[in-house]
Hints:
Layout lengths: L1 H8 L5 H20 L2 H8 L4 H28 L2 H19 L5 H29 L5 H29 L2 H19 L25 H27 L5 H26 L5 H16 L4 H28 L6 H29 L3 H37 L1
Helix pairs in contact: 2-6, 2-7, 2-8, 3-4, 4-5, 4-6, 4-13, 5-6, 5-8, 6-13, 7-8, 7-10, 7-12, 9-12, 9-13, 9-14, 10-12, 11-12, 11-14, 12-13, 13-14
Amino acid sequence: MKNQSHLQKDKIWTRDFVFVCLSNFFIFAGFQMTLPTLPLFVNELGGKDEMIGMIVGIFTFSALIIRPWAGHVLETLGRRFVYLIGLAVFVVSVAAYSFTSSILLLFLLRVVQGLGWGMSTTAVGTIATDLIPPKRRGEGMGFFGLAGTLAMAFGPALGLMLVVRANFSITFAIAAFCGLASLIIAALIHYRPGEKSHAPQRKWDLYEKTALVPALLLFFITMAFGGITSFLPLYAEQLNISGIGWYFTVFAFSLMIVRPFSGKLYDRLGHKAVFLPGTFLILIAMIDLSLLANEWMLIAAALFFGVGFGSVQPALQAWAVQSAPKNRRGMANATFFSSFDLGVGTGAMFFGVIASWYGYSEIYMASAISVTISMVLYLFITKNMSVGNETSAGQLSR
Length: 398
């Protein structure tokens, strides 16, 4: 009986966890449909490379602005309020793309979409963390990430297909419908209240300090992600390389396969077993893209990037929330995803300038440098952490 109770306590796949994953799947499906199609839409409206970078970047920066507020409200007004409001804002803004005919209006709608995305993704990551047993957090976050990964498997390819066979308006309308499905499922979830703290109340702040290290490492990795989402479709088109839809599909399936294993590896051995091997594969993918010459190189880059990012991202997210107090999980997730947004937004804007001045291939060489910085920082930080632990242990033994 005791063993049965213990197994129930450590169970990942509960009713609410399934609903959280389904809701996450549909919102990511809508989001992923817009990733490769928006740069093409901006191009059709007459925007240049710098404007493409601005349109992508402003979305992530508006999400960045709202996340600290969302993190605090998650602990006061609750998970349900933040998640449902965020999803509703996302749905309305994406649906409005169908009626957009100017870059200025698109720019403003991207700001609104970013606010909804920032609220909803901060909330859903915290909700998933609430539901996953602490001893299986890495594994659980890996499974949770699969929902977004499955959406990534067909979302970009579906968006590109709809643009070719139908038009942008229909593409954005279907993306908004996916968001609506996410909202309906989210309304069925039983939400847990945030943990109350008996410690003195903190002043309103912008981050959770225990999540800063994984967030900093993630920033330099997602700069590369910003370069891919913003310019890879145009880069492939310039080189007359087909199969950009296959790139996103292979990338997604690579993520899907590796996430559960990397999560278990994190639970057993920690981030040291996951981070450096994963970032090394991302580095290879960036070098591959900088030398892109044919479809096979494109698919290889998708495979390397998928396995690498699928290993690193859930491990860093589990690391970010693992050390945070229970009443600060919302803020830890806000800090983590703020870094994700800042990396993608900075990468999109910075690489937009590089593309305009030097060309698309140089974007991915710069991305390789960014990933290398993350690896060097990791080695430096973990070395100092080890020295600090040894010093503390020596002092205690005296």
